[in-house]
Specification:
Helices cover about 50% and strands about 0% of the residues. The chain is built from 13 helices and no strands. The protein has helices at about 5-10, 15-30, 35, 50-65, 70-80, 90-100, 105-115, 130-135, 145-150, 165-170, 180-195, 210-215, 225-235. It is globular, with a radius of gyration of 20 Å. This is SEC-C motif-containing protein.
Length: about 270
C-alpha cells in the first residue's frame, strides 16, 4: 500500500513505482512563492541579492554562536524554504532565473558562502536533489557556471535523489522526442556530466539506468548517444586529440594554468 505524502516526506528510503510518481507530481507542482516563503531573516535578503547584507547577517549569527562560524554555517545549511524545502544554494540558483539581471550578485553570494562562510553545498530539497543536480539537470536550465562552483566545492556528481536517480536521468528524459533542439541542449548538459566523472550505469528506484534511457531514444534522435560515444572514446584513449583524455575544467580555487600565481577564479577564470 502506498504511504501518505506526509510519510514519504519524513522517510529517507529510495522511492519507486506509485510512491515515486506521487512525490514527483508534488515536487513539480508545489512551487516556492518568494512573497510567501522567504519571510525569515535570511529569506528576505534574496530578492535584492546584496552580498553585503548576507555577510552582515551571517556575522551577526556568528556572534550569536559566540564566535563559532561552523555553527553559523550549519544553521544556514539546515534552513529550508517553501513547500519543497529548498536549501540556500538551490534558492540562489532559482533567483538567477527569477532575476536574471542580478545573476552576478547571486553568483557572488554563492561564491562567498562556499569560500568564506564555508556553508556545505550538498543540501537537498524534499526530492533529494542538490544544487549541482538542479544546475545540470536543466531545472530550471543548464547552468555550467553554477554547476562548476558546486562541483569545485565538493558536490557529488553521481549523487542519487529520493527516486534513486542521478542528474543524468533528468538530463536524458527528453519530453519531446522529436524536438532536436531539446536533444542538443540535453547533449550539452550530458557532456558536462560525463566530463566531470558522471556515470551512466546507476539505476534508479525502478531499475532504469541512464544508458538504457539513451538507448531507447536512438530511434528518434542520436544526439545523446553521439555524446556518450564521443566522450567515452576520448576517455578510453581512442581520440586522436592530444593524449586522448578529456581535460577537466580547471577548478576555481586551483592555481591558474597561465602561470600568474593567482587562483583561476581571480585570473583567467573571470572571462
Amino acid at each position: 500500500m502506498s504511504r501518505p505524502l506526509g510519510q514519504l516526506f519524513a522517510s529517507s528510503d529510495i522511492l519507486s513505482g506509485e510512491e515515486a510518481m506521487r512525490m514527483r507530481n508534488y515536487c513539480s507542482t508545489a512551487y516556492m512563492d518568494p512573497d510567501r516563503d522567504l519571510k525569515d531573516s535570511y529569506g528576505i535578503l534574496f530578492e535584492d541579492g546584496s552580498l553585503t547584507a548576507f555577510q552582515e547577517h551571517f556575522q551577526s549569527r556568528i556572534q550569536h554562536f559566540e564566535g563559532r562560524q561552523y555553527e553559523a554555517a550549519q544553521e544556514l545549511f539546515k534552513v529550508k524554504w517553501g513547500p519543497t524545502r529548498i536549501p540556500v544554494y538551490v534558492v540562489l540558483l532559482a533567483f538567477t532565473s527569477i532575476n536574471p539581471g542580478l545573476r552576478y550578485k547571486y553568483i557572488a553570494i554563492a561564491e562567498w558562502l562556499v569560500d568564506t562562510a564555508k556553508v556545505p553545498v550538498d543540501g537537498t530539497d524534499i526530492s533529494g536533489t542538490t544544487a549541482l543536480m538542479h544546475s545540470i539537470s536543466q531545472k530550471p536550465y543548464f547552468d555550467p557556471e553554477f554547476a562548476q562552483l558546486m562541483f569545485d566545492a565538493g558536490a557529488d556528481i553521481n549523487r542519487r535523489d529520493r527516486f534513486g536517480a542521478i542528474a543524468a536521468h533528468d538530463i536524458t528524459t527528453v519530453q519531446l522526442l522529436y524536438d532536436h533542439v531539446a536533444h542538443e541542449k540535453a547533449g550539452r548538459a550530458l557532456q558536462w556530466f560525463l566530463e566531470h566523472g558522471g556515470t551512466l550505469d546507476i539505476k534508479d528506484g525502478d531499475g532504469i539506468s541512464v544508458r538504457r534511457i539513451i538507448a531507447s531514444l536512438e530511434g528518434t534522435d542520436r544526439t545523446l548517444k553521439g555524446v556518450v560515444d564521443r566522450v567515452e572514446q576520448q576517455q578510453s584513449g581512442g581520440s586522436n586529440t592530444g593524449s586522448g583524455i578529456i581535460a577537466r575544467p580547471t577548478a576555481r580555487n586551483s592555481p591558474c594554468p597561465c602561470g600568474s600565481g593567482r587562483k583561476f577564479k581571480k585570473c583567467c577564470g573571470q572571462a
